[in-house]
# Entry
Amino acid sequence: MAGLRSIQDLPTVTDHLYRQDAYLADCQARVLSVSSDGIILDRTIFYPLGGGQPGDTGRLETDHGTVTISDTRHGHGDTILHIPDSGSVREGEEIRASIDWDRRYAHMRMHTCLHLLGAVVDRGVTGGNISASRSRLDFDMSETVDKAEITERLNRLIEANHPVESFWIAEEELDARPELIKTLSVRPPRGVGEIRLLQIPGVDLQPCGGTHVRQTGEIGPVRIGKVEKKGRHNRRVSVEFAVTAEDVALVAEESVPEV
Ligand SMILES: [Zn+2]
# Structure
């Protein structure tokens, strides 16, 4: 039927460039499909909402104009949906994709900082959320934490400028190395084939598909904000950037309400 397309005809794969290099702020790409769900490209630097990290925002530039992207989500298969705010693109068109780098870089710093926070508090993590100005982790614990002590230990790990590395490992290989599983702070997902591990040597090792900075020093100074009791066995610990002029500008821009 002309004009109609079954789900089988939709593209199923997008090359996720941000997984190999989180520092790419733009790339050339081709439009594979356009639907009411969003725009699918053959390759992208846009990170889709997931793992507590927000989807990227940015622009797609064409010969005939600019499309503003207000959110990024996982689509069917291994595709990524770029959600347009305004403007239009056509299937088959070559475009230039660019993300709002300041916002994403703040997410990368915050995300990496949460790995450090998890290592410092060293309790089971039951949830988390990242934004450009403040982030939080929910810990499975009944006692409270010493804000000053956690702040100091976090900043010490940041200042030590530890390298942050990621690598892929096959599920079978992980199964064959129980000593590696034992060091993981989070149980890996099953049935996905290859697993991406995030490693801060001597500090943290866990499965993670998010975007991170290369060295912990890039996070910059932080402080523990609110510590809330969210149930008998749940402490919600918030972390925020210790304010610089740049961070003030980002906080002012941010309109995402705290959930
Ligand atoms: Zn991560």
Notes: The domain at 10-99 is CATH 2.40.30.130 (Elongation Factor Tu (Ef-tu); domain 3). The chain has two domains: 10-99, 104-255. The CA atoms of residues 64 and 176 lie 54 Å apart.
